């Protein structure tokens, strides 16, 4: 009898957790996006990326990344309300573009810092891969409202290949 009561309570708690947000509604932010970046110092570096975002881990898939200073960096976004990835090399979404900052685009990470409502705060990260384990990593933050994202980005300090680069981004869900 006591085991039945304990089992019933556990089942009710699990059902309550699922009904009250145990599964994230952040999946609405996944899908196909067109993201445009504008470099504040050189308009020739403005780019348009086509990104297919799928729910995923908040960490980049190839961690750790070698830095310009000879160390290693763990690449991640803050995503307490959900994370999304676009990386065709590992079969989780995809990223392609008409341009790039320094190297061809490899990965896009988006982390929702606040619940997926309108607007939600986000962290954005682009990772570009060059020859001989050379990487450029760009950090961004902004908001997402009604399938539109806007914000600012800058070169991550550990990667001197993009030192001093910064600008704005905007994106729309297709």
Quick synopsis:
This protein is 12% helix and 43% strand. It is mainly beta and 174 residues long. It has one domain.
Key descriptive features of the protein:
two-stranded antiparallel ribbon; globular; single chain; 1 helix; 174 residues
What this model shows, in words?
It is a single chain. The chain has one domain (25-173). The strands form 2 sheets. The chain has an 8-stranded antiparallel beta barrel with strand order 1-2-5-7-8-9-10-11. Strands 3-4 form a two-stranded antiparallel ribbon. The chain has one helix at residues 2-22; strands spanning 31-39, 47-55, 65-66, 72-73, 83-86, 94-97, 105-112, 120-129, 135-145, 148-155, 166-173. With 174 residues, the chain is mostly beta strands. The longest helix is centred in the first third of the chain and has 21 residues, at 2-22. The radius of gyration is 19 Å and the shape is globular.
Question: What is the topology?
Answer:
Layout (H helix, E strand, L loop, with lengths): L1 H21 L8 E9 L7 E9 L9 E2 L5 E2 L9 E4 L7 E4 L7 E8 L7 E10 L5 E11 L2 E8 L10 E8 L1
Average pLDDT taken over every residue: 78
Spatial arrangement of strands, main beta sheet: 1-2-5-7-8-9-10-11
Largest sheet: 8 strands, antiparallel, barrel
Helical/strand content category = mainly beta
């Amino acid at each position: 009898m006591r085991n039945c009561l304990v089992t019933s309570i556990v089942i009710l708690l699990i059902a309550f957790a699922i009904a009250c947000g145990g599964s994230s509604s952040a999946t609405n932010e996944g899908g196909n996006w067109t993201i445009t970046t504008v470099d504040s110092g050189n308009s020739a570096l403005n780019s348009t990326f086509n990104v297919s975002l799928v729910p995923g881990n908040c960490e980049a898939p190839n961690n750790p990344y070698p830095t310009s200073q000879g160390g290693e960096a763990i690449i991640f976004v803050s995503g307490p309300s959900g994370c999304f990835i676009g990386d065709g090399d590992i079969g989780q979404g995809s990223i392609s573009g008409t341009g790039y900052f320094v190297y061809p685009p490899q990965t896009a990470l988006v982390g929702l810092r606040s619940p997926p409502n309108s607007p939600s705060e986000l962290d954005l990260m682009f990772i570009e891969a060059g020859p001989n384990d050379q990487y450029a990593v760009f950090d961004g933050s902004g908001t997402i409202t009604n399938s539109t994202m806007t914000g600012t980005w800058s070169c991550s300090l550990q990667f001197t290949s993009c030192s001093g680069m910064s600008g704005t981004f905007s994106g729309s869900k297709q």
